Amino acid sequence: MELLTIITIIFGVAMSVGYFTQTYKIFKKKSAKDVSLLTYLFFGSGIIIWLLYGISIQSYPVIISNIVYLVGVISVLLAYFSVKR
C-alpha cells in the first residue's frame, strides 16, 4: 500500500471521531434535544453516496473512511432515538 493511501485511511477514520463524541454526549446527558436529526440524515445520505462511489472506483481509502463515517452516523441516530428528547 502506498504511503498516501495509508495516510488517507488514517485521517479519514480520525475525522469520524466527532460522530462518536456526539453519541457519547447524547448518552451522558440522556438528551438529544440539541441534535439536529435532519443534519445527520443528510450526512448519512451523503456518506452512502460516497461509499457507493468508492466501491464503484474500487478506492479503499474512500470505502474504509465512509464505512467508519456511516457507523458513526448510525450510532448518533440510534442514540438520538433511544433517549428521551
In short:
This protein has 85 residues and is mostly helical. The protein has helices at residues 3-14, 17-29, 37-57, 60-82.
Task: Give a verbal description of the structure.
By secondary structure, this protein is an all-alpha fold. 81% of the residues lie in helices and 0% in strands. It has helices spanning 3-14, 17-29, 37-57, 60-82. Helix 1 runs parallel beside helix 4 and helix 2 runs parallel beside helix 4 (60-82). The N and C termini lie far apart (45 Å).
Shape descriptor reads elongated
Query: What can be said about the biggest beta sheet?
Result: none
- Radius of gyration in whole Å, from Cα? 14 Å
Taken together, the total number of domains comes to: 1
Average pLDDT level: 93
Along the chain, the helix and strand elements come as HHHH
As residue ranges, the low-confidence spans are: none
Number of strands: 0
Helix content: over 70%
**Quaternary status:** single chain
- CATH class placement: Mainly Alpha
Cα(first) to Cα(last) distance is 45 Å
Q: Strand-residue fraction?
A: under 5%
The CATH topology label is Monooxygenase
CATH architecture call: Up-down Bundle
In DSSP terms (H or I, runs of 4 or more residues), the helix count works out at 4
Backbone structural class: mainly alpha
